C-alpha cells in the first residue's frame, strides 16, 4: 500500500496541517497532478462516488411477509380446510393473508432509496488542474491529490484542503445544520486539534456543500465513501431501524394466540373423540375453533386503520412513508428537533438595530418584507438616522428578495445575511430595485477575510456616496463621525467603546452583528477613511411563530422536546430559550459529547435540553442514548447530516420543503409544510390510530374468547356442542367483519392529548384492558351457555337451542362493539358517534335475521326458525353485557384494576 493510502486510511486531520505539509502527504503540488498520475490514482482508489449497500431481492422481501406467526397459522388452517372440502373458508383466509402480504411487500420495496438520493446530490462535474491546465472532468473522476478550482455557485465534488481562498464562503447546512454560509481560508485550525467539528474547519471544504461567494483552490484529501458525506452514507447503510411498538406487541400477541389455538384445537378434538364423535367432524370443528382464536382479519384491519391514519395526517400536512410509523407517533416520548429550517425559518432576519443612541426592535419574521420598527414599545419612523442606515446597508448588498412564482413564499437570491438587510429596508419602504436605480453603483471594494468589510460607491446628485458594511471592530477603525437624528458628530473613544459594548450585548443574545457606515463625496481611493458610523444591525434565523405553541402542546401531552443542531451553542441556546425548550436543563456541545462514553451519556441524557455543534455521529449517539433510557424517539431534520439519526429513531421526520431527498428517504414521515406544529397533529392522529387498533383487538379477542368459553363450558358440562362449525365460522366472520372494521375508524377520544405517552413496554394490553376483555368474554360465555342449557333442559329440539344460542351470541358481540369504543368512557357518552359502526351493526342484524329465517339456509347452517319471544329473549340476554361492562369501566376509572393507559 502506498504512503498516500496509509494517510487516507489513517484519517489524517488535514484541516489541522499547514498547506505545504498537506500537499507533501498527498504527493501533490499547487499545479495539480499529471493526467497519468490521476489515472493511476483513479484505478487505486476507485471512482469518486457513493457505494450502495447490498439490498434484498424482491423475492426475498415478498417471502419475508409470510414469516409472521399468525400468517403461518392461517395458512395451515386454509390448507386443512381445502383438504377437508371447505373451500369457501380456505379462499376467504387465503385472500386476507395475500392482501396483507402484498401491502407489506409494497411498503418495504420502496423503503431503501437513501443511497440513490445521495448520489443525485453529488456534483456532476468539477474543474481540476492537470498537467498545468484547467480541465472540466466528471466528478466521479476526481482523485485524492487533485487540485480543484472553486467558484461561487459550484457544488464541491470532494473533501479538500484549501490552498488558496479569496473571500470564499461555503454553505455547509447539509452537513452541519449551520444556518449561514461559513467563511473559509487556507490557514490550519488555530488549536491544531484533529477532532475539530466540521463547522469549525475553516481550511476545509466538503463534498455535497456549495460555494456561495468568492473563489478558491483546494487539494482533494478524500473522495467517495471516505468523505464526510460518504461517512454519513455509510452510517445510513449500517443503521437498522428497529421494530415499532405496535409490531412488537402484535408479534407477542401472535405467539400467544398460536399457543392458544393449538391448545384449544387439541382439547376440543380430544374431548369430542372421547365422546365418540367422528374424527373428520371434530377436525372441521377444530379448524373452525382455531380460526375463531386467530383473528384472521387482524393484518388487514391494522393495515386499514394505519392507512386511514395516513390519510388523516396528510390532511394535516404530514406525509407517512411507512405505515407502522403512524402508530409509533402515538407513543413518542421525546422529539429531537433540528434547529435550522425546522424550529426556525432558515431565513436570516434583522431583529435589532442600534442607531443614533437608541436600540430599535424590528418586527416580522423571515424574508417576507412585512414588519415595523419600535423603540420601547413606540413605533419609529424610517426617516432620519434609521433610514440612512437602511439605505446604506441595502446599497452595499448584492442580494435580492422576491416572491417565488405561484406561492406566498419569499426567497432571497444571494447571501442570506445581505438578504436580511434588504428585507429590513423593504419594511421601511426602501426597496432594493428602487435604490439601485436611484443610486447606481459605479465601483466597489470587495469583502476580504483580512478587512472583513465591503464598500460600494454610488452616483448621487451631490457626488459619490460610499456605503459600507462589515464587522464592527473593522468598520469602526475607518469612521471619524457618528450619525445622529440631527446630523453628525465626532466619534470619540467613549463613543467607540459604547458601540463595541452594544455589539457584544447583541452577540451575547446570539445575534449576528454587522456595522454600517457611509461617506458623502467619496472617491474609490479614499472611500475607506473618514466615514460616518451609522449603526449596528443584529440578525438571527428566527423561530417559527407556530413552533412555541406546538412545543407547549407537546409538554402538555408529556412529550419532551430537545434541540439537536450543528449551530453555535449561543445561537442554539437563545432560540431554545425563546421557544421554551431550554427550561433549566443543560446545553452541551459536540466536543463535550465526544468526551463522554455511551454509558455516561445515557445517564446524563435526561437532563440535556440542547445539543449544539454536533456531528451526524453525535446525533446518532443521542438517539441511541435516549432509546437506552426507554424513550420512543422522533427525530426531525432537513439536512444530509440528519439522515442516519432519522433512520435510527423510531420515527424520523423530514422537512418536505427545505429537506434534502436523502433525509426524506431516510425518514418515516415528511412534513409537507415544514411546520413543527404539524408533528403535534401527527402525534394526535398516531395516538388515535393506536387506540383504534386496541379497540379492535379488545373487542375481537373478548368476543373470540367468549365463543371458546361457550364451547369449552358445554363440553365440560356434558352438553351437546352449542354451535355447528358453520355457525361458529359465521359468528367469527360477523364479528371480525364490518363491526371490527368500523372500530378501526372510530373518532378519537376528546382527551387524547391530555394523557402522557403510553409506555411501549406495557404492550397493547394493560391490566385494565385485560380485565375489561376478560369480563366481557366471561359474561358472554356465561349468558350464552345459560341460554343453551335452558333451551336443552326445556325440551327444545337441538337445532332450536343451537339457533337461539347462535342469535344470542351474535347480538352479544354487537352490544360489545358499542361498549368497546372506549376502555374508560361510558357507552352512554356519544353512543352513536361512529356512524360506520351504526351502519355495520344494522347491516349485520339484517344478515342475521336472513340467515336464521330464510328456509333455504336452514340446511347449510343447521338453524331453525325463531319466534318473537325467542328474539326478545336473545336481545334481553345479549344486552345484559352492557351494564356488566359499565360497572367494570366504573371500577377501572377509580383505579381498581391498576394504572390506566
TrEMBL record:
Subcellular location, in the record's words? Cell membrane
Query: Where would I find the Cation-transporting P-type ATPase N-terminal domain in this sequence?
Result: 13-86
Q: What residues form the membrane-spanning segments?
A: 59-84, 90-106, 256-276, 282-308, 696-719, 765-792, 798-815, 836-856
Q: Which Pfam families match?
A: Cation_ATPase, Cation_ATPase_C, Cation_ATPase_N, E1-E2_ATPase
Q: What PROSITE patterns does the entry give?
A: ATPASE_E1_E2 (PS00154)
Could you state a single Gene Ontology molecular function term?
ATP binding
| Keywords noted in UniProt | ATP-binding, Cell membrane, Magnesium, Membrane, Nucleotide-binding, Phosphoprotein, Translocase, Transmembrane, Transmembrane helix
- Chief location category: membrane
SMART domains in UniProt? Cation_ATPase_N (SM00831)
* Region Disordered: start-end pairs: 174-199
> Which branch of life, at top level?
Bacteria
How is the protein disposed in the membrane? Multi-pass membrane protein
A cellular component term from Gene Ontology for this protein is: plasma membrane
Q: Which SUPFAM superfamilies match?
A: Calcium ATPase, transduction domain A, Calcium ATPase, transmembrane domain M, HAD-like, Metal cation-transporting ATPase, ATP-binding domain N
Classification via PANTHER family: CATION TRANSPORTING ATPASE, SODIUM/POTASSIUM-TRANSPORTING ATPASE SUBUNIT ALPHA
**Family statement drawn from the similarity comment of this UniProt entry:** Belongs to the cation transport ATPase (P-type) (TC 3.A.3) family. Type IIA subfamily.
State what protein this is by name: Calcium-transporting ATPase 1
Lineage, broadest ranks: Bacteria, Pseudomonadati, Planctomycetota, Planctomycetia, Isosphaerales
Amino acid at each position: 500500500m502506498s504512503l498516500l493510502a496509509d494517510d487516507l486510511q489513517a484519517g489524517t486531520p488535514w484541516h489541522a496541517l499547514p498547506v505545504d505539509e498537506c500537499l507533501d502527504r498527498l504527493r501533490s503540488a499547487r499545479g495539480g497532478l499529471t493526467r497519468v498520475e490521476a489515472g493511476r490514482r483513479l484505478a487505486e482508489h476507485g471512482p469518486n462516488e457513493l457505494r450502495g449497500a447490498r439490498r434484498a431481492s424482491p423475492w426475498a422481501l415478498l417471502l419475508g411477509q409470510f414469516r409472521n406467526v399468525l400468517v403461518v397459522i392461517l395458512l395451515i388452517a386454509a390448507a386443512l380446510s381445502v383438504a377437508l372440502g371447505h373451500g369457501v373458508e380456505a379462499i376467504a383466509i387465503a385472500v386476507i393473508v395475500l392482501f396483507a402480504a402484498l401491502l407489506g411487500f409494497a411498503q418495504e420495496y420502496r423503503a431503501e432509496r437513501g443511497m440513490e438520493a445521495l448520489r443525485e446530490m453529488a456534483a456532476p462535474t468539477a474543474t481540476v488542474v492537470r498537467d498545468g491546465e484547467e480541465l472540466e472532468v466528471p466528478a466521479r473522476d476526481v482523485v485524492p491529490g487533485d487540485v480543484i478550482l472553486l467558484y461561487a455557485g459550484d457544488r464541491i465534488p470532494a473533501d479538500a484542503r484549501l490552498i488558496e481562498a479569496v473571500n470564499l464562503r461555503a454553505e455547509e447546512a447539509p452537513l452541519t445544520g449551520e444556518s449561514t454560509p461559513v467563511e473559509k481560508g487556507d490557514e490550519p485550525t488555530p488549536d491544531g486539534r484533529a477532532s475539530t467539528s466540521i463547522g469549525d474547519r475553516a481550511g476545509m471544504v466538503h463534498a455535497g456543500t456549495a460555494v456561495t461567494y468568492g473563489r478558491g483552490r483546494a487539494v482533494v484529501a478524500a473522495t467517495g465513501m471516505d468523505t464526510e458525506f460518504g461517512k454519513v452514507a455509510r452510517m445510513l447503510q449500517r443503521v437498522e431501524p428497529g421494530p415499532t411498538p405496535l409490531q412488537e406487541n402484535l408479534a407477542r400477541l401472535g405467539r400467544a394466540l398460536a399457543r392458544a389455538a393449538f391448545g384449544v384445537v387439541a382439547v376440543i378434538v380430544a374431548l369430542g373423540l372421547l365422546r365418540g364423535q367422528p374424527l373428520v367432524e371434530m377436525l372441521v370443528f377444530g379448524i373452525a375453533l382455531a380460526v375463531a382464536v386467530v383473528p384472521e382479519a387482524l393484518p388487514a384491519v391494522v393495515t386499514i386503520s394505519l392507512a386511514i391514519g395516513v390519510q388523516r395526517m396528510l390532511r394535516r400536512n404530514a406525509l407517512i412513508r411507512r405505515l407502522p410509523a403512524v402508530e409509533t407517533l402515538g407513543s413518542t416520548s421525546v422529539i429531537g428537533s433540528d434547529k435550522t429550517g425546522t424550529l426556525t425559518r432558515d431565513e436570516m432576519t434583522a431583529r435589532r438595530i442600534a442607531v443614533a443612541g437608541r436600540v430599535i426592535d424590528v418586527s416580522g419574521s423571515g424574508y417576507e418584507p412585512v414588519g415595523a420598527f419600535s423603540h420601547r414599545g413606540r413605533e419609529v419612523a424610517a426617516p432620519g438616522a434609521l433610514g440612512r442606515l437602511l439605505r446604506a446597508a441595502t446599497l452595499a448588498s448584492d442580494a435580492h428578495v422576491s416572491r417565488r412564482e405561484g406561492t406566498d413564499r419569499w426567497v432571497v437570491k444571494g447571501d442570506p445575511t445581505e438578504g436580511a438587510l434588504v428585507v429590513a429596508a423593504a419594511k421601511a419602504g426602501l426597496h432594493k430595485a428602487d435604490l439601485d436605480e436611484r443610486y447606481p453603483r459605479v465601483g466597489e471594494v470587495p469583502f476580504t477575510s483580512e478587512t472583513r468589510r465591503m464598500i460600494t460607491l454610488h452616483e448621487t446628485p451631490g457626488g459619490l456616496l460610499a456605503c459600507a458594511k462589515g464587522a464592527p471592530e473593522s468598520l469602526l477603525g475607518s469612521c471619524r463621525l457618528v450619525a445622529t437624528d440631527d446630523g453628525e458628530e465626532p466619534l470619540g473613544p467613549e463613543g467607540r467603546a459604547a458601540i463595541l459594548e452594544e455589539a457584544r450585548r447583541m452577540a451575547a443574545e446570539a445575534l449576528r452583528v454587522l456595522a454600517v457606515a457611509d461617506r458623502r463625496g467619496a472617491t474609490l481611493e479614499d472611500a475607506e477613511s473618514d466615514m460616518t458610523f451609522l449603526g449596528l444591525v443584529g440578525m438571527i434565523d428566527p423561530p417559527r411563530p407556530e413552533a412555541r405553541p406546538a412545543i407547549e402542546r407537546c409538554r402538555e401531552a408529556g412529550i419532551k422536546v430537545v434541540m439537536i443542531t450543528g449551530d453555535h451553542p449561543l445561537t442554539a441556546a437563545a432560540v431554545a430559550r425563546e421557544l421554551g425548550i431550554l427550561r433549566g436543563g443543560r446545553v452541551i456541545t459536540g466536543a463535550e459529547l465526544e468526551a463522554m462514553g455511551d454509558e455516561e451519556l445515557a445517564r446524563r441524557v435526561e437532563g440535556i435540553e440542547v445539543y449544539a455543534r454536533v456531528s451526524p455521529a453525535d446525533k446518532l449517539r443521542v438517539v441511541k442514548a435516549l432509546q437506552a433510557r426507554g424513550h420512543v424517539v422522533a427525530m426531525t431534520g432537513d439536512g444530509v447530516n440528519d439522515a442516519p439519526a432519522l433512520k435510527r429513531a423510531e420515527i424520523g421526520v423530514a422537512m418536505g420543503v427545505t429537506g434534502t431527498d436523502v433525509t426524506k428517504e431516510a425518514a418515516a414521515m415528511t412534513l409537507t409544510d415544514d411546520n413543527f406544529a404539524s408533528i403535534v397533529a401527527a402525534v394526535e392522529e398516531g395516538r388515535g390510530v393506536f387506540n383504534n387498533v386496541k379497540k379492535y383487538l379488545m373487542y375481537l379477542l373478548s368476543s373470540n374468547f367468549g365463543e371458546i368459553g361457550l364451547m369449552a363450558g358445554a363440553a365440560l358440562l356434558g352438553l351437546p356442542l352449542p354451535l355447528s362449525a358453520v355457525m361458529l365460522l359465521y359468528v367469527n366472520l360477523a364479528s371480525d367483519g364490518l363491526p371490527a372494521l368500523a372500530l378501526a375508524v372510530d373518532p378519537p377520544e376528546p382527551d387524547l392529548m391530555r394523557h402522557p405517552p403510553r409506555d411501549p413496554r406495557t404492550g397493547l394490553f394493560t391490566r385494565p384492558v385485560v380485565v375489561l376483555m376478560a369480563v366481557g368474554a366471561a359474561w358472554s360465555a356465561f349468558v350464552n351457555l345459560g341460554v343453551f342449557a335452558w333451551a336443552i333442559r326445556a325440551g327444545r329440539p337441538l337445532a332450536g337451542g343451537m339457533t337461539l344460542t347462535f342469535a344470542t351470541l351474535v347480538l352479544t358481540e354487537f352490544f360489545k362493539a358499542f361498549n368497546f369504543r372506549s376502555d374508560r368512557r361510558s357507552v352512554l357518552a356519544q353512543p352513536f358517534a361512529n356512524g360506520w359502526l351504526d351502519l355495520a351493526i344494522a347491516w349485520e342484524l339484517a344478515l342475521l335475521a336472513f340467515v336464521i329465517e330464510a328456509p333455504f339456509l336452514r340446511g347449510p347452517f343447521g338453524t331453525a326458525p325463531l319466534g318473537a319471544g325467542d328474539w326478545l329473549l336473545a336481545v334481553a340476554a345479549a344486552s345484559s353485557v352492557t351494564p356488566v361492562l359499565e360497572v367494570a369501566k366504573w371500577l377501572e376509572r377509580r383505579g381498581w384494576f391498576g394504572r390506566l393507559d
